[in-house]
Design goal:
The complex is a heterodimer of chains A (490) and B (793).
Chain A lengths: L4 E5 L2 E5 L8 H8 L18 E8 L2 E8 L12 E3 L13 H8 L9 H14 L5 H8 L10 H9 L14 H11 L5 E5 L2 E5 L3 H10 L4 E3 L5 H6 L7 E4 L9 E3 L3 E5 L4 H11 L1 H8 L4 H4 L4 H6 L7 H7 L3 E6 L2 E6 H4 E3 L2 E2 L5 E9 L6 E7 L10 E9 L5 E9 L6 E2 L1 H7 L6 H11 L13 H20 L17
Parallel strand pairs in A: 1-5, 7-9, 8-9
Antiparallel strand pairs in A: 1-2, 3-4, 3-5, 6-7, 10-11, 11-16, 12-13, 12-16, 14-15, 17-18, 18-19, 19-20
Helix pairs in contact in A: 2-5, 9-10, 15-16, 16-17
Chain B lengths: L31 H6 L15 E7 L5 E7 L1 H4 L4 E5 L25 E2 L5 E7 L2 H8 L3 E6 L6 H6 L10 E4 L2 H7 L2 E9 L12 E5 L5 E5 L4 H12 L6 E5 L13 H15 L3 E3 L3 H7 L6 E9 L5 E13 L5 H10 L10 E9 L13 H19 L3 H8 L24 H11 L2 H14 L3 E14 L8 E8 L5 E5 L8 H13 L6 E3 L2 E2 L14 H28 L6 E4 L2 E4 L2 E4 H10 L5 E7 L4 E3 L4 E3 L3 E14 L5 E10 L7 H19 L31 E6 L25 H12 L16 H19 L1
Parallel strand pairs in B: 1-12, 10-11, 14-15, 18-19, 28-29
Antiparallel strand pairs in B: 1-5, 2-4, 2-6, 3-5, 7-15, 8-13, 9-10, 9-12, 11-20, 13-14, 16-27, 17-18, 17-24, 21-22, 22-23, 25-26, 27-28
Helix pairs in contact in B: 6-7, 9-10, 10-11, 14-15, 18-19
Classes of the chains: A alpha+beta (490), B alpha+beta (793).
Pfam families (chain A): CO_deh_flav_C, FAD_binding_5, Fer2, Fer2_2
GO molecular function, one term (chain A): FAD binding
Keywords (chain A): FAD, Flavoprotein, Iron, Metal-binding, Oxidoreductase, Plasmid
Chain lengths: 490, 793
């Protein structure tokens, strides 16, 4: 076991022996390092003021990703490179093109969110050449600004490509840094801690399986987009944290022919393109989960394993007929995803068991998939209701297959059995759909809370079935406000 | 000190190169390069003095209860804890209220009146320790009935936190009775959390004797000074409050910073160690007040042409548990209940209701927005009742223009509007936005669109500029010229992102004809410029710009007199050019002149002072001239609504806004764009939600949604009205811009209402309440469809 955390802060190799397992990157920067350019706005990964860029190896290539420093644990940076706003100015004091564009476009007013925007823009600048407007909106969705109304920041995102030579950028040469990070890579378990509390980061699946058997009370952490809040908001003290992010085999997506086997450690960002290729509307749904910083950390496995009734991928996965592979020691078992969720706060997972992969079947010919996320805000919001549908009609226009699953309507992500039964075998007509909408009232008893009232949830869930009907029966109807409107007619 | 009533004429300037950063230039923000590099220092970034203690607050978990007992021993015994403070430890007055009503204790002692009310403070070695310890108190409560909503407060004892106001013009009852048509209704408007990105924060450093220095994120250092002095029972002169910049304020740091400053000052003086308090975002939401939510009952009488004959409105506001600024805020709701419309007869009343929720406070617009939304609802009602386009009714009811002289210029507070430019401004926007063409296109779109519906609205803004508390309309400045020609600038205004320091530096650069890089703005401090007003009411550059101008002109006058005498020329022959001065034929650098003046023992430092002329206000009589002038604007918004879900997007917004002769068009445009999006957020997605126990459940960005990048209008055309200098003698004829654009967001709200109305053929006024979340929009659509179906039967 390696007992020393190693990562690069800019170009400087940092090696740390004693580290609190849940110390956040933000607190380390501000309190220990006195690097105060990175700001705390919310301490829950929702405002982006703390955005930093992390370089990590994806295979042998270096990838730069914007992440929220406020909910990321320092020890998860093992083997990575951390860039903060202080790294951007050149040795001669010149502003980086990203910074200069923000100045030129009047992109800052109070300036408090600005370092976070600058870092999100840096990630964009390093990864993409002249993105379109929609892509810029996505890249900035995780950064809140209360002063500017965003317009000048978007102009900066366009203008930054006109300043300087992007290929000659200081961060453009990834090969040398990739080599340095490769030199840090090993197959040992990382075990660091302080005050009797431990952070364990295995490198392989068997190591992970064994650690979970040996540490029954441990908290499994993948992206920490949820667990991070236990620490920052509820000040929970976690004795042992087992981090899955170093396990390379969990970060793979395998094409099994009839299905994708998505490792539990695959982040939303990693999965988006592959899933979108099979189910375009699922890709659109992923685009609206959290924001870039959250999608770069959060994992689909984590979204399932934490059992939330308002996680966005479970309804879609259930509608697609996904199964879950759980592992305990060397034993594995598979079950339909909907069976994993027993009731609110309870899942079919035994002590020492972990989600290893989710198996997403490929769509059969003629299958149509739709997913709709309803929230107060399109980006970086939690669903009030999330509905997903898989439909196949037979040659006579009868419903040969229908799977309907909702999040936000019950204590768990749940299928609409009565509505499905009302439709199955019948003709796909507006009358049938209206009957199924009525039947759906028996499927769910939603709650009222700050996201939506029970009445709205029920009404909108039923209406989404109508939306599905319109989209599958009337190609001329315009039904989408955001995303790729063509998806509605795919 | 120059007399403000006889302004000094600008000095003759030289032709030739313009200075960098002159007035009217689109100069970048003075701190932009520091914002983008992370080098701009906010209070939490200041290097901490050795031994600094971190303070955290213990909060009430009940909305209304008597405190039976408090056991703080677990708090005292927690790791790292150094001291705990309660009401008993306050040496002076246990009160932080801004109105002198003694209704806002620093620490509750026997009674708690809202969830989140501070009961004690704990100081520990680290913030984490203080935060953990604060949760350990054992408080025994005896629960009392809690009044949480406007409805409950109206139905109950109707306790008011402050006396209400009534504005009267003409005989509203008679006018309503005689009007050919009448409509009445009720409009509910939600509150708003400021969501400044930098949360509240204060750091106090103890000094000698009674002295204390406080770094705090506040819009109102002088009030903090007063509050700290009376909490500590020390003279004002012992307290220095300093603010370099804030990470946003929006009104939320006008009075709400008092608590944090007073608390750290108390800890610092009692322990002899520096003390810092920064609440977590969730606690900041719970502890601090917000924009007031309102329920407004209206009655309007009008004629067949849509002309208003008489209006009655009752503005019931949820004030929260204490007065705070609820008096002036609800007053301003009445002051703007006319927006840009002439009411021949009106009776407008406020009802600032006491509730067991956090005490609501200032927020950009300060009650004005709620008044204006009510005015626009009334106009919509008339339009629906008569089957006309709302824009027609809007235009028909505008105040008269000076030139018109048709007697339609008297406001409900008996000030005559003399600078009305709305008719021309709206006509320009109507044309540039293509309102009528798009109205037809939208009608055609809606006729054939099954699920998506579009809506369009053009709404005006007329906003009165000046503090309605007349004595606040004063400012001071301090300018030092050093012997190398560099200049330090200080004034009473706070830089909170709005570009105030940049604009005032432009004024001083202009006065001395030196590049703006010569001017160094310094942190606002009660020790440099005393007795300042809050940076609020959009007044920052109007007041501080004039004060700094006066200071700069004092020094320049001395330089001119000195040069004229020394080189034997007439004062008119001393002319300032870019970083240079011509004295007769003698050309010298500004620095050379300054050095020569210093050698001749000329004073190179000056204070400046300004007070707004012409204004007065008699609240009891409801008469006066509370505003120096009005700022105008208008916005045209187009939205698309999904009638199956209630979701919507803002497709296009066109804005034409009046900044007078803008001091800095780039900064002003930023204020307009940002203000618009913030106003739109208030009326659309931003929803405050309390549960039945009075706990705010939308308490952080995870649950409280402000507009994100993709929510801004997809097409966003923003223009400043050209060739429209302020008719009053404001600083370089500019107009205030902080608040007015906020209300441009109403256009989105009314466009949503327009889209919703389309599902019932525009036959019924949708009476959409705010915030128009997707849920409210869908509920409204469902109700309209039912109503339309019922009316067919």
């Amino acid at each position: 076991m390696r007992q020393r955390l190693r990562f690069y802060l800019g170009d400087e190799l940092r090696e740390i022996d004693a580290v609190d397992p849940t110390l956040t990157v933000l607190d380390w920067l501000r309190l220990s390092e006195r690097r105060v350019g990175t700001k705390e706005g919310c301490a829950e990964g929702d405002c982006g003021a703390c955005t930093v860029v992390v370089g990590r190896l994806d295979g042998d290539t270096l990838r730069y990703e914007a992440v929220n420093a406020c909910i990321r644990f320092l020890a998860t940076l093992d083997g990575c490179r951390l860039l903060t706003v202080e790294h951007l100015k050149g040795p001669d004091g010149a502003l980086h093109p990203v910074q200069q564009a923000m100045v030129d476009c009047h992109g800052s007013q109070c300036g408090f969110c600005t370092p976070g925007f600058v870092m999100s823009l840096l990630a964009l600048y390093l990864n993409e050449e002249r993105p379109d407007g929609r892509r810029i909106d996505d890249a900035l969705a995780g950064n809140l600004c209360r002063c500017t109304g965003y317009e000048p920041i978007v102009r900066a995102a366009q203008g930054m490509y006109d300043i300087g030579d992007r290929s000659a950028d200081r961060f453009a040469d990834r090969a040398a840094m990739a080599e340095k990070l490769k030199a840090l890579r090993d197959e040992e378990i990382l075990g660091v801690g302080a005050g009797g509390r431990r952070f364990l980061a295995p490198a392989t699946v068997p190591q992970l399986a064994q650690l979970l058997l040996d540490n029954p009370g441990a908290t499994i952490v993948a992206g920490a987009t949820d667990v991070g809040l236990w620490v920052t908001k509820f000040q929970r003290v976690l004795a042992t944290v087992i981090y899955t992010g170093r396990v390379r085999d969990l970060r793979r997506i395998e094409d099994r022919g009839d299905a994708l086997v998505i490792g539990a450690g695959v982040t939303y960002s990693d999965a988006a393109e592959r899933i979108a290729a099979l189910y375009p509307d699922f890709g659109e749904l992923i685009r609206r989960i959290g924001a870039e910083q959250v999608r770069n950390m959060g994992t689909i496995g984590g979204n399932i394993a934490n059992g939330s009734p308002i996680g966005d991928t479970p309804p879609a996965l259930i509608a697609c007929g996904a199964t879950l592979r759980l592992r305990r020691g060397a034993e594995t078992r598979e079950l339909p995803l909907e069976d994993f969720f027993i009731e609110y706060g309870r899942q079919d997972r035994r002590e020492g068991e972990f989600v290893e992969a989710v198996i997403l079947p490929k769509p059969a010919a003629g299958m149509r998939f739709r997913a709709y996320k309803i929230a107060k805000r399109f980006d970086q919001d939690i669903s009030a209701v999330c509905g997903a549908f898989r439909l196949r009609l037979d040659g006579e226009g009868r419903v040969a297959d229908i799977r309907i699953a909702f999040g936000g309507m019950s204590g768990t992500p749940k299928r609409a059995g009565a509505a499905e039964a009302a439709l199955l075998g019948g003709h796909w007509t507006e009358d049938a759909v209206i009957r199924a909408m009525e039947a759906m009232a028996g499927d769910y008893t939603p709650l009222s809370d700050w996201r939506a009232s029970a009445g709205y949830r029920s009404m909108v869930a039923a209406n989404l079935l109508m939306k599905l009907y319109v989209e599958t029966s009337d190609p001329a109807a315009d039904t989408r406000l955001v995303g790729d409107r063509r998806l509605a007619h795919a | 000190m120059p007399d403000v009533t006889t302004p000094i004429a600008p000095a003759p300037t030289l032709p030739g190169a313009r200075i960098e950063g002159a007035v009217h230039d689109p100069r970048r923000h003075e701190s932009a390069h520091k914002h983008v590099s992370g080098e701009a220092v906010y209070v939490d970034d200041i290097a901490e003095p050795a031994g600094l203690l971190h303070v955290y607050l213990g909060l009430s978990s009940r909305a209304h209860a008597r405190i039976r007992s408090i056991d703080l021993s677990p708090v005292r015994g927690a790791p790292g804890v150094v001291a705990v403070f309660t009401a008993d430890d306050v040496p002076g007055v246990n009160d932080i209220g801004c109105m002198g009503k003694h209704d806002e204790p620093l620490f509750a002692s026997t009674l708690v009146e809202h969830v989140g009310q501070p009961i004690f403070a704990v100081a520990a070695e680290t913030r984490d320790q203080a935060r953990r310890a604060a949760k350990l108190a054992v408080v025994e409560y005896e629960e009392l009935p809690a009044v949480l909503t406007i409805a409950a407060a109206r139905d109950g004892a109707r306790t008011l936190v402050t006396p209400p106001m009534t504005l009267r013009v003409g005989d509203a009852d008679a006018a309503l009775a005689a009007a050919p048509h009448r409509v009445e209704g009720r409009l509910a408007i939600g509150g708003q959390e400021h969501f400044y990105l930098e949360s509240q924060i204060a750091m106090a450093v103890p000094g000698e004797d009674q002295e204390v220095l406080i770094h705090v994120s506040t819009q109102h250092p002088t009030e903090v000074q007063h509050i700290v002095a009376h909490v500590l029972d020390v003279p004002d002169a012992a307290v220095t409050v300093e603010v370099r910049r804030m990470g946003g304020g929006f009104g939320g740091k006008e009075t709400q910073s008092n608590l944090f400053a007073a608390c750290t000052a108390l800890v610092a003086k009692r322990t002899g160690r520096a003390a810092k308090l920064r609440p977590d975002r969730d606690d900041d939401f719970q502890i601090t007040g917000k924009r007031h939510d309102f329920e407004i009952d209206y009655r309007v009488g009008f004629d067949g042409g849509g002309l208003v004959r008489g209006v009655e409105m009752l503005f019931a506001a949820r004030a929260g548990y204490a007065a705070d600024l609820s008096g002036p805020v609800t007053d301003r709701a009445l002051f703007h209940a006319d927006n840009g419309y002439f009411y021949p007869a009106a009776r407008l009343e406020s009802l600032p209701l006491k509730t067991n929720t956090v005490s609501n406070t200032a927020f950009r617009g300060f009650g004005g927005p709620q008044g204006m939304v009510a005015a626009e609802r009334v106009i919509d009602e008339i339009a629906f009742a008569l089957g006309k386009d709302p824009l027609e009714i809007r235009k028909r009811n505008f105040y008269g223009t000076d030139a018109g002289g048709d007697g339609r210029n008297l406001t409900p507070y008996h000030q005559t509007v003399t600078d009305n430019i709305l008719p021309e401004l709206v006509a320009q926007l109507e044309e540039s936005s293509g309102y009528w063409t798009r109205r037809e296109e939208i009608r055609a779109f809606n006729a054939k669109s099954r699920i998506l519906r579009k809506g369009l609205a053009l709404t005006p803004v007329k906003f009165g500029i000046s503090f309605t508390a007349s004595h606040y309309n004063q400012a001071g400045a301090l300018v030092h010229v050093y012997t190398d020609g560099s200049i330090q600038l200080n004034h009473g205004g706070i830089e909170m992102g709005q570009g105030l320091y940049t604009k005032v530096a432009q004024v001083v650069a202009e006065e001395f004809q030196v590049d703006i890089s010569t001017i160094r703005p310094t942190a606002t401090s009660t020790g440099k410029v005393p007795n300042t007003s809050a940076t609020a009411a959009s007044s920052g550059s109007d007041l501080n710009g004039k004060a700094a101008q006066a200071a700069a002109r004092s020094i320049r006058e001395r330089l001119v007199a000195f040069a004229a005498e020394k080189w034997g020329v007439a004062p008119e022959a001393v002319r300032f050019g870019r970083n240079r001065v011509m004295v007769g034929d003698r050309d010298m650098s500004f620095a050379d002149l300054v050095r020569a003046a210093y050698m001749a023992r000329v004073q190179l430092s000056a204070t400046g002072f300004y007070k707004t002329p012409k204004i007065h206000w008699d609240r009891a009589a409801g008469r006066g001239t509370p505003f120096y002038y009005f700022a105008y604007g208008a916005a045209c918004a187009e939205v698309t609504v999904d009638t199956l879900t209630g979701e919507y997007v803002v497709d296009r917004v066109d804005i034409l806004h009046d900044c007078g002769r803008s001091l800095n068009p780039a900064i002003d445009k930023g204020q307009i764009e940002g203000g618009f999006v913030q106003g739109m957020g208030w009326l659309t997605m931003e929803e405050l939600w309390w549960d039945g126990e009075g706990r705010l459940r939308t308490h952080a960005p995870s649950t409280y949604k402000i507009p994100a990048c993709s929510d801004r209008p997809r097409i966003f055309n923003v223009a400043l009205l050209e060739n429209a200098p302020n008719r009053e003698d404001t600083i370089f004829r500019s107009k205030a811009v902080g608040e007015p654009p906020f209300m441009l967001g109403m256009s989105v709200f009314h466009a949503l209402s327009d889209a919703v109305a389309s599902v019932a053929g525009h036959r019924f006024c949708p009476r959409l309440d705010a915030p128009a979340t997707p849920e409210r929009v869908l509920t409204c659509i469902a109700a309209l469809r039912e109503r339309a179906a019922a009316s067919r039967q």
